[in-house]
């Protein structure tokens, strides 16, 4: 038997940090709701990130004989139909992630080269983004082993930059600087007079939940960790609290150097870092270029990884027969080439549509796509939470080495999080300051068309499977935990019968 327990707690800790932390989340949420984002980040860590990670750990331990991807987790309690739908949602969400990531390549490159921002029409950003994504798709289909090094380099520098900023801001406060914004608790309140309404805050809360997301990408390593489930839970809680603390403190300290009104989604990180550098007598221009290098490296690394990884995971995880053999065929680098280009074809119109509603403002474009990315990002974890609720309600006797408390606690946590996700998804999908046509076409239309098409495609697969092999179709739709529960019940009945016979 191959012993896969080859990573320690510190390695897992760093993997969680790399998967979850991104300084852009600090910038975006400070721009949107100011220092109110600071306590919101910490609360999201406590009430969402840590419980959700424990749920993932429970699903992994339930599916300990498999690689325990998203498909297997949801299939445990909801069956193959909703497992496919959830796997599709993860790939679908990634399409909108590209829309928020691609324009930043141009923004960061300009700051790196010129040391300042320039006015670029939104349509030009879309054309540039399509070109970059075309090249990224082409490279990813040919293998790009060096991309992992770029990603690690950029992520490490980004985290280092955030920590240096936090230390610098604390030193500045101790040195007597007058903060640009109110740092007190009173300054973090929801003030309708500032134009920030409760509905707008709930929409931004979707951004914050997305910002502390990523646990599903780490849960699959439980079987590789020395110490098993207990070590996993301990490490993930420490990592989650660390991320929440960095996000919270970083967002709060943004107000030390710059006023909320002085920063935008495009220039926030550059204005903030330049102001911090100049406070300590360093060149703001040089700092901007260095920050441009860091952010560009992190963005390009992430773009290349996410161009190939999700499409590979999606097309290789779902059952054979849903898509044609040519679509899922892998090349010598293990990448489904046709699937990658299908992804490119879908992303192009998704890049173009928001430019029609953004006018000439890069900030408006980024706000639209960030908002939609956050809204769609809630769908996959929400489906996992529904699957967990069903697991605890109907299949709680299924054997697993780790459980998040008793049945009542599990049901209560899942119920609360599903309700929270529902409210935040609706608020993010229907932002109050966005044109109605854009909301209906992009936010609502995109979700309805793509997810409706996914379910229709799966139903087509099930009809064919029923015609060819009814028993295989039944097994596909049956929750895997149900089969385990039936086996447990049969074993219990056999033991009872044996005991009665012996008496």
TrEMBL record:
Keywords from the UniProt entry: Cell membrane, Membrane, Transmembrane, Transmembrane helix, Transport
Compartment list: Cell membrane
Gene3D superfamilies, per database record: Amino acid/polyamine transporter I (1.20.1740.10)
GO cellular component, one term: plasma membrane
Cell membrane in keyword set: yes
Domain of life where this protein originates: Bacteria
Pfam families: AA_permease_2
Primary location: membrane
Topological relation to the membrane, as annotated: Multi-pass membrane protein
Gene Ontology molecular functions: transmembrane transporter activity
Transmembrane portions of the chain: 7-24, 36-61, 82-110, 122-141, 153-178, 198-223, 235-258, 286-306, 340-362, 368-389, 409-430, 436-458
PANTHER family assigned to the protein according to its UniProt record, in alphabetical order: AMINO ACID TRANSPORTER-RELATED (PTHR42770), GLUTAMATE_GAMMA-AMINOBUTYRATE ANTIPORTER-RELATED (PTHR42770:SF15)
Protein name: Amino acid permease
């Amino acid at each position: 038997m191959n012993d896969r327990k080859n990573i320690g707690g510190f390695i897992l800790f760093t993997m969680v940090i790399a998967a979850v932390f991104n300084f852009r989340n600090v910038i975006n949420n400070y721009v949107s709701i100011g220092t109110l984002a600071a306590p919101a980040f910490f609360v999201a860590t406590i009430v969402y990130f840590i419980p959700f990670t424990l749920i993932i750990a429970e699903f992994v331990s339930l599916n300990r004989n498999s690689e325990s991807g998203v498909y297997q987790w949801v299939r445990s309690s909801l069956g193959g139909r909703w497992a496919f739908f959830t796997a599709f949602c993860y790939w679908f969400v990634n399409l909108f992630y590209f829309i928020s990531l691609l324009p930043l390549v141009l923004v960061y490159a300009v700051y790196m080269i010129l040391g300042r921002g320039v006015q670029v029409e939104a349509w030009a950003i879309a054309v540039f983004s399509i070109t970059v994504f075309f090249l990224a798709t082409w490279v990813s289909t040919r293998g790009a082993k060096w991309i992992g090094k770029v990603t690690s380099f950029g992520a490490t520098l980004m985290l280092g930059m955030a920590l240096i900023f936090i230390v610098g801001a604390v030193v500045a406060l101790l040195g007597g600087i007058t903060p640009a914004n109110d740092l007190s608790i009173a300054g973090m309140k929801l003030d309708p007079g500032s134009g920030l309404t409760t509905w707008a805050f709930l929409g931004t809360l979707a951004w914050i939940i997305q910002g502390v997301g990523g646990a599903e990408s780490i849960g699959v390593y439980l079987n590789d960790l020395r110490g098993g489930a207990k070590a996993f839970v301990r490490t993930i809680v420490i990592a989650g609290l660390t991320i929440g603390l960095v996000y919270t403190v970083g967002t709060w300290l943004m107000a030390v150097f710059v006023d909320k009104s002085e920063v935008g989604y495009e220039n926030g990180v550059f204005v903030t870092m330049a102001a911090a550098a100049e406070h300590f007598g360093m060149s703001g221009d040089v700092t901007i270029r260095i920050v441009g290098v860091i952010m560009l490296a992190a963005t390009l690394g992430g773009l290349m990884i996410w161009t190939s990884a999700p499409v590979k995971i999606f097309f290789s995880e779902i059952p054979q027969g849903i898509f044609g053999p040519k679509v899922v065929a892998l090349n010598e680098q293990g990448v489904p080439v046709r699937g990658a280009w299908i992804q490119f074809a879908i992303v192009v119109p998704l890049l173009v549509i928001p430019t029609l509603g953004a006018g000439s403002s890069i900030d408006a474009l980024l706000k639209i796509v960030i908002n939609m990315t956050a809204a769609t990002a809630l769908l996959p974890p929400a489906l996992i939470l529904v699957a967990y609720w069903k697991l605890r309600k109907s299949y709680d006797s299924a054997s697993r080495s780790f459980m998040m408390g008793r049945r009542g606690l599990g049901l209560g946590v899942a119920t609360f999080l599903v309700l929270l996700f529902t409210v935040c998804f609706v608020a993010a999908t229907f932002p109050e300051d966005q044109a109605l046509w854009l909301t209906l076409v992009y936010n609502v239309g995109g979700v309805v068309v793509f997810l409706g098409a996914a379910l229709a495609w799966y139903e087509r697969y099930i009809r064919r499977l029923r015609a060819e092999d009814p028993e295989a179709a039944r097994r596909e739709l049956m929750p895997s935990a149900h089969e385990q529960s039936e086996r447990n019940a049969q074993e219990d009945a056999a033991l009872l019968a044996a005991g009665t016979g012996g008496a």
